Amino acid sequence: MKKFALLSLAVALLFSAGTLTALAGDSLTPGTTAPGFTLPSQDNTPISLSEYKGKWVVLYFYPKDATPGCTVEAHNFQRDLDKFKAANAVVLGVSLDTPGSHKSFCDKESLTFKLLADPDRKVVDAYGVPVKNFGTMKFASRQTFLIDPSGKIVKTWPDVDADLKNHSANVLAAIAAGGK
Length: 180
What we know:
Layout: H1 2-17, E1 38-40, E2 46-48, E3 56-61, H2 68-79, H3 81-86, E4 89-95, H4 99-109, E5 114-117, H5 122-126, E6 131-134, E7 137-140, E8 143-147, E9 153-157, H6 167-176
Parallel strand pairs: 3-4, 4-5
Antiparallel strand pairs: 1-2, 3-8, 6-7, 8-9
């Protein structure tokens, strides 16, 4: 348990210092049609982007389950989940973790929205989210894409770490402004 806590702290410090090397290409920009995908969630149910046609989709990528920044981000989305539902929006989190890791994280932190497992980096790469190295471990960068009900990316947040505590509220404000 202490090793995991130390690793979590080391990862958080390295991400905030920006010392890890990016491996993926450029991320998608507003106006682009969001790439479709199907990934397993924390309960191993396959979740497809196409299921949410007609809804706003908050697709957020994060480094690692149960690490300090990722826990804050997930709690803020969970806190505002009723506001997202009222705005006809769903929240989907994506990391390189496994469905089992997501299940443990959701159970421990009482998270009820879908966390999607992308250990093969199919969706991370399709969205151009940089992957960073820490020794042999790899982590997706913290980025968010707002997808409108027609399936277009209307807003991106390429560096969520800079305003992590207000991020959920900023995404809600963008939905209320029609994606602007």
